[in-house]
Amino acid sequence: MTENTDVIFVGNKPPMAYVLAIITSLSQGDLKEITLKARGQAITTAVDVAEITKNRFIKDLKVTKIAIGTAEMPPREGENRSRMVSTMEITMTKTA
To answer: What is the pTM of this model?
Structure first.
C-alpha cells in the first residue's frame, strides 16, 4: 500500500502560512497524508499549525503519528563543539 505523503518544513514564517500550505496540498489531487517537520524553536509553531488546521479548517484531519528525536548540528562559527537540536514530525491524515 503506497500512501501519498507531502512534507512541510516549519521554520520562521507565521503559523498561518503553513496552515495555508496544508490546506492547499490537501485540496489538490488525491493526497491524504501530510507531515510537518520542525527543529528547535519551530516545534511550537508546528504544534500550533497542526491544531489550527484540524480545529478550524479541516475538521476530518486527524493526527496519526508524532515522532520526536534529536539531531546533531555542526558547530557555529567560533564554537568548537557540535550541538544537539530537538526535532519533531507530526503526521496528519484526512479521514474522509
So the answer is: 0.89
The C-alpha cell 504544534 sits at 47
Q: Tell me if 76 sits within 8 A of 67, measured CB to CB.
A: no
Q: Return the pLDDT at 1.
A: 41
Strands (E), the chain: 5-9, 33-39, 61-73, 83-94
**Three-class secondary structure of residue 18 per DSSP:** helix
Local structure of 25: helix, strand or coil: helix
Using one digit for the tens of pLDDT, what is the confidence trace for 12-71?
Answer: 999 999 999 999 999 887 889 999 999 999 999 999 999 999 999 999 999 999 999 999
Give the Cα separation of 32 and 78 in Å (integer).
Answer: 45
Domains of the chain from N-terminus onward: 5-94 (3.30.110.20)
CA-nearest of 9, 82, 23, 31 to 58 is 23
